[in-house]
Amino acid sequence: KSFANLPMAFTDELDWPQFSEITGFLNSTIGGWTDSLYLRLRRRNRCNHRDLQNISQNGGSSGNLLSLIKSLARNQLLDNPAIVIYATIGNDVCNGDRDTLAHMTTPKEMLSNVVQALRYLDSRLPNGSHVILTGLVDGRFLWDNLHDRYHPLGQLNRDITYSQLYSFLDCLQVSPCSGWLTPNETLRNLTSERALQLSNVLKEIARSEKFANFDVFYMDFPLKQTAEEWHKMGGEPWQLIEPVDGFHPSQIAAAIGTSITWQKALHEWPHVLGKENPFNDQIEAVFKDQGGH
């Protein structure tokens, strides 16, 4: 019974898409609460019920997305418009190669990859859709807040820090991000510099590119604002990182990030969220009467 959920866990790449910032839909006790763009859209209009897709992959860069995006399920003529969140977060600068800088996506490659992806979406999304491009994260946050803390494997005997874990993974050449998970401050800064360059490419695409079936917006990855909000709630920055891998955002970070994204959309792009359904209460009552189906 201990391993009954392994098949599902492996197909999800040991991630938790059902609790994620964009498509989360389940409540959880794994270390936070579930809040997501999907749940907020569903509350706004019950017609969004179960209308979600999580098209992702661990390590999925802008290049990988050119193939992943083809699994999008949307009928351009019969379906409602979609909201697409395009976010590679750090995967265009993260790799485990010895010469990590040489294997990062260049600004020219980023421009080509993203424009190709958007052109594909333009051929598949219903008219009136929206695409939000999310900038890359500043991953120096990881080392700055975790390197001298004990990893869960080392908490009992106080003998394994995240710094040691990162070095071990790098030694095995399986580090998820040699550019940020390193004691080399110069390398961490160069990695963040490239990430900023790629974010600026996304920002320029949102400013200058036009498409027939959707409008394009850009927002910075809200890590700084998330940390500030969590601090106001009495939390510590390291709690925003998933403790086992010491790399991905935690469920807490996802929930707070949702609130920040939602507020930005309400104030700057209200039409993206669609109108509230005045019959929501009646629809919810029918939904409950039918056993939630």
TrEMBL record:
Signal peptide: none annotated. GO terms for molecular function: acyloxyacyl hydrolase activity; calcium ion binding. GO terms for biological process: lipopolysaccharide catabolic process; negative regulation of inflammatory response. Gene3D superfamilies: SGNH hydrolase (3.40.50.1110). It comes from the Eukaryota. Keywords: Hydrolase. InterPro entries: AOAH, GDSL, SGNH_hydro_sf. The keyword Hydrolase applies. The keyword Electron transport does not apply. This is AOAH hydrolase. It comes from Heliornis fulica (sungrebe). The gene is Aoah.
